[in-house]
Recover the amino acids of this structure.
């Protein structure tokens, strides 16, 4: 059954947030990111030199690194995965962090999966895409990042939904914030409630069944410290954005994609 993406979309529509006048400042976003990085650093020697190798990630990182090249003919099919999503469909700020464009989401959104409740953290972009499908790199990829802290050992576990973009028609979701991206690095622009909705991105028709569902694998963060605690879900549908929209985001963040890593013995699931 191709139920996962439908659950996500349905939850977005049913959990639309009420209007909010709360303003987000860049200090809060940078502080949230820094707290996560500091907690990750407790389990990783950040003093070591880390290189982004093309295939072999190196022994320092382990053997389940991300991103990867998904060979669609070799994936293992599973009927379904149980995921409960409660997203408040309210993007309230866009930040220029220099290395990426990041969207801030209203607090209170969660994903329940893998016997954990993941809190929504942020959405950000990579140009070009980090993940490949059958060796193909796309011009842009968006990561919807969710995190849960293990109560026993304090480690952070992630669930990231990956959205791949190709050049095509103008994307309504991106149009909502494209002109609001701050020119200055480490600056933020608050967004009026209701202007930018994730449902405008995800609620697009699938042309055939091959575009329904997700790929799943266990991997890592794609930025230092490359922690191997990420549940990756790659949407099969390739979304469209205009060349101008993709070029605008690329202008701010440059080429910020990590190269693909070796799969080794990992199983890539298709549901």
């Amino acid at each position: 059954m191709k139920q996962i993406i439908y659950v996500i979309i349905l939850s977005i529509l049913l959990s639309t947030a009420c209007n909010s006048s709360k303003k987000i400042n860049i200090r809060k976003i940078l502080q949230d990111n820094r707290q996560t990085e500091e907690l990750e650093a407790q389990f990783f020697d950040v003093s070591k030199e880390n290189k982004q190798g093309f295939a072999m990630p190196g022994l320092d990182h382990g053997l389940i690194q991300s991103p990867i090249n998904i060979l669609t003919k070799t994936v293992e099919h599973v009927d379904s995965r149980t995921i409960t999503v409660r997203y408040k469909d309210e993007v309230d700020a866009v930040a220029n962090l220099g290395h990426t464009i990041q969207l801030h989401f209203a607090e209170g959104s969660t994903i329940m999966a893998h016997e954990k409740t993941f809190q929504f953290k942020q959405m950000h972009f990579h140009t070009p895409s980090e993940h490949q499908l059958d060796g193909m790199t796309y011009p842009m990829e968006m990561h919807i990042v969710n995190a849960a802290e293990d109560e026993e050992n304090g480690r952070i576990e992630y669930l990231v939904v990956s959205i791949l973009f190709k050049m095509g028609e103008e994307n309504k979701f991106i149009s909502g914030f494209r002109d609001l991206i701050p020119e200055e690095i480490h600056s933020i622009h608050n967004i009026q409630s209701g202007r930018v909705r994730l449902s405008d991105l995800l609620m697009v028709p699938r042309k055939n069944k091959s575009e329904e569902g997700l790929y799943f694998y266990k991997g890592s963060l794609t930025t230092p410290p490359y922690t191997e605690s990420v549940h990756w879900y790659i949407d099969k549908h390739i979304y469209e954005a205009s060349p101008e929209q993709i070029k605008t985001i690329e202008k701010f963040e440059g080429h910020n994609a990590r190269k693909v890593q070796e799969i080794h013995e990992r199983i890539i699931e298709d549901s």
In short: The helical segments are 4-14, 26-41, 172-178, 199-202, 243-253.
